[in-house]
Amino acid sequence: MMLEINNLVKNYGKKEAVKKINLSVKPGEIYGFLGHNGAGKTTTIKACTGLIKPTSGSVKICGYDIVRQPLEAKQNFGYVPENPYLYSKLTGREFLDSISGIYMKGKRNDALKRIDELLEEMQMTDDADKLIGTYSQGMRRKIIICAAFLHHPSVVFLDEPTTGLDASSAKAAKDLFRKHADKGSSILFTTHILEIAERLCDRIGIIYQGELIAEGTFQELKEKFEKPGSTLEDIFLNITEQNSKECNER
To answer: Model confidence over 3-37: pLDDT tens digits?
Structure first.
């Protein structure tokens, strides 16, 4: 597996934000990681990317442990955070060039070609030489997506990647995600737009109060939790409401 999460736990004092999460993402797979606000999605991704240290458990990226082998692990993934920080005094192209200097040393020509390809795919060619400080939220999102895919990562973490994108840009982003998965990348994808997850994701996991409570393809979840013809939204609400009732009865 490209991405393996084993018994991941993250506590903040007495609060259990993530409770023994186990999941893996196969090469070529887009895994939709769904849950309400505060369910533990972003905390899980931050633990996977080394931004926070797990309380216990492990995360392996291409076989490298993110805690014990952080440099090796980080060379193999790309990351689109929910709230990205960008340098406002750089142009979009300069920002991507700086990222390529980290991941693609000694491959200057390849890096420049790759930057141009991604800018075109994400409809940013005309704005690439403008200062990031002048960018809209959607333009900033598109540049950080370009940065995440710049070095052809084996694993990609996407935390609400379509936030702020218009319909055309969102389609371009989804096409990019699918193309890279089809080339063998493993993608862990969070979104509140369940229609996107239903259409784009190969497998889906639902997290509730820090626990992974359901997992499977859309068809598997539909057969297990709802009647035929149900949407992912129906299934999601059914599962989370059921777990809420069970928690209240304890």
So the answer is: 999 999 999 998 999 999 999 999 999 999 999 99
Tokens 């991507």 found at: 96
**CA Rg value for the chain:** 18
Are 2 and 62 in contact by the 8 Å Cβ rule? The answer is yes
DSSP 3-state of 184: coil
Residue 246: predicted pLDDT? 65
Question: Does the model's pTM come out above 0.90?
Answer: yes
Domain ranges for the chain, please list them: 3-249
Which ranges in the chain belong to alpha helices (H)? 41-48, 70-74, 92-103, 108-121, 137-149, 167-182, 194-200, 218-225, 232-249
CA 193 to CA 205: how far, in whole Å?
14
Specify the amino acid at residue 127: D
Is residue 92 a contact partner of residue 128, using CB atoms and an 8 Å limit? yes
Topology (CATH) of 3-249 = Rossmann fold (3.40.50)
176-233 pLDDT per residue, tens: 999 999 999 999 999 999 999 999 999 999 999 999 999 999 999 988 886 667 899 9
Question: What is d(CA 72, CA 56) in angstroms, rounded to the nearest whole number?
Answer: 20
Give 39's DSSP letter.
S
Task: Residue 182: name the closest of 202, 159, 199 by CA.
Answer: 202
Among the listed residues 186, 148, 195, 147, the one whose alpha carbon sits nearest the alpha carbon of residue 167: 195
Distance of CA 42 to the CA centre of its chain: 9
